[in-house]
Amino acid sequence: MAQNQNSNSSKKILLHACxxxxxGYPISLLQDMGYCVVVYFYNPNxxxxxxxxxRLEAEKTLCRHFNCEFIIGNYEPExxxxxxxxxxxxxEKGARCDKCFELRLNKTAxxxxxxxxxxxxxxxxxSPHKNYEKxxxxxxxxxxxxxxxxxxxxxxxxxxxLKTNKISKDLGLYRQNYCGCKFALx
Length: 186
Prior knowledge:
By secondary structure, the protein is α/β, with parallel strands linked by helices. It contains 6 helices and 5 strands. Strands 3-2-1-4-5 form a 5-stranded parallel β-sheet, sandwiched between helices. The longest helix has 21 residues, at 95-115. The protein is globular and about 40 Å long.
């Protein structure tokens, strides 16, 4: 059964969503915390475009299920490649990934500012393959630059990763098998 967005809540948050699998439990938890969740899908790192479209469709399904406002950022892989230039041979979880997080969270902060939403966070932190502390550090730094608040919530706690996987399985969402960029396919 779909949960309804708390339309009476004036406490909005912009959730950067990396994919449907990762954002199911974060949406649910944020709604339970009283937030009116606005989901922002900005992922220029995803390769190839067909993969991007599969993840986008899964996110649309999830947002319909949770009755969330859904905003699709531009798909601009050239911006991603320019931003990580020189880091192509970095290992997974290295400097290239940090730059990718920075690009996506900065764009999320800019969108939050444009929408006059004072808080933002990301679903990326739910993945056991992502460094929660590093993502929180990047998010807080970007929030400070934009005079916003980054909500450093560890969605992995209380079996969050298991819960998000159950949500995605129950909804029949597309399940990818790599982070997203062409370098992760190696």
